[in-house]
Every structure is written in C-alpha cells, then in structure tokens.
Amino acid sequence: MVQAAGAALQHELSALRQRVPGIRGCVLATVDGLLVGQDLAWGCEPHDMAVLAASVFGVGRQCGLGLRQGAFRETSVRSDLGCFTVYAVTDAALLAVLSDDGLDLGWLHREARPVAGRIAELLPPPR
C-alpha cells in the first residue's frame, strides 16, 4: 500500500511537470520543510525547495490569519528568472512548483490545484 501510494505521488509530480511547459520541477514537502517527494528536471536542490516552501507557507499563513482572510491556499513568488509557487495540499503538506519566467501562471493553477487535491487523497490521514 505504501509503495503504491509512493508511486502514485511520483506519477502526479511527474505528470504535472510534463503537462505544463516551463515547469522546472515539483516537490511535495511537509509544512515544517521536510522533503516527501520530488520531480526535478535540473538546477535546484530538492531539500532547499522543501524548506523554502515551508517558509513561503509560513508567511502566507500569517497573512491569511492576520488579515482575517482564512487558511493558506497558495502563493507565488515571481523573480527575474522564474516563479516559485506553493499550494496547500493538506494542513501538513505542501506542493511547490519551480518554473521559468515565461510560464503561464493561469495554466499552472488550472493544472496544479487538482493535482494538490489528488495528492491529498493519497496521503495518510493525520494522527
């Protein structure tokens, strides 16, 4: 069962990267920055992405709470050479996507949001 879930998680990450042009890679991480899964084409350390995803989540969560906007759902950080987008999967898990600058962010959202939902169904329930 665990191996099947792991293979399904890997498939979701790989399929997302292949479906959306410009994605360099995806990681699944815990909200405290531990790496759970990855599919990276090149150029980034997956453990670094997991830690950065947790950091982005922390700021986003505080914004949502402080501004009374509710729970964190997603955020994107655009830089000169690309974009880093973090999606809430569950209360304990995050999907982070690293992409090139030319990525169509709307396309990414349309593809990644359902992936986050499917991944949530594959993860074990919280203890």
What does this entry look like structurally?
The protein is 45% helix and 28% strand. The chain has 127 residues and is α+β, with helices and mostly antiparallel strands. The chain has one domain (2-122): Dynein light chain 2a, cytoplasmic (Beta-Lactamase), CATH 3.30.450. Strands 2-1-5-4-3 form a five-stranded antiparallel beta sheet, sandwiched between helices. The longest helix has 21 residues, at 46-66.
Topology at a glance:
Blueprint: H1 2-19, E1 23-30, E2 35-40, H2 46-66, E3 74-79, E4 82-88, E5 93-100, H3 105-122
Antiparallel strand pairs: 1-2, 1-5, 3-4, 4-5
Helix pairs in contact: 1-3
Share in β-strands: 25-35%
Structural class: alpha+beta
Mean pLDDT rating: 92
Q: Major sheet: size, sense and barrel closure?
A: 5 strands, antiparallel
Number of domains: 1
- Spatial ordering of strands, largest sheet: 2-1-5-4-3
Instruction: State the total count of DSSP E strands.
Output: 5
- Low-confidence spans: none
Q: Can you write the helix and strand succession as a string?
A: HEEHEEEH
CATH architecture: 2-Layer Sandwich
- CATH class identity: Alpha Beta
CATH-derived topology: Beta-Lactamase
Please, how many helices?
Answer: 3
| Name given to the CATH homologous superfamily | Dynein light chain 2a, cytoplasmic
Helix content: 40-55%
Q: If you compute it from the alpha carbons, what radius of gyration comes out, rounded to the nearest whole angstrom?
A: 14 Å
Distance between the termini: 18 Å
Overall morphology: globular
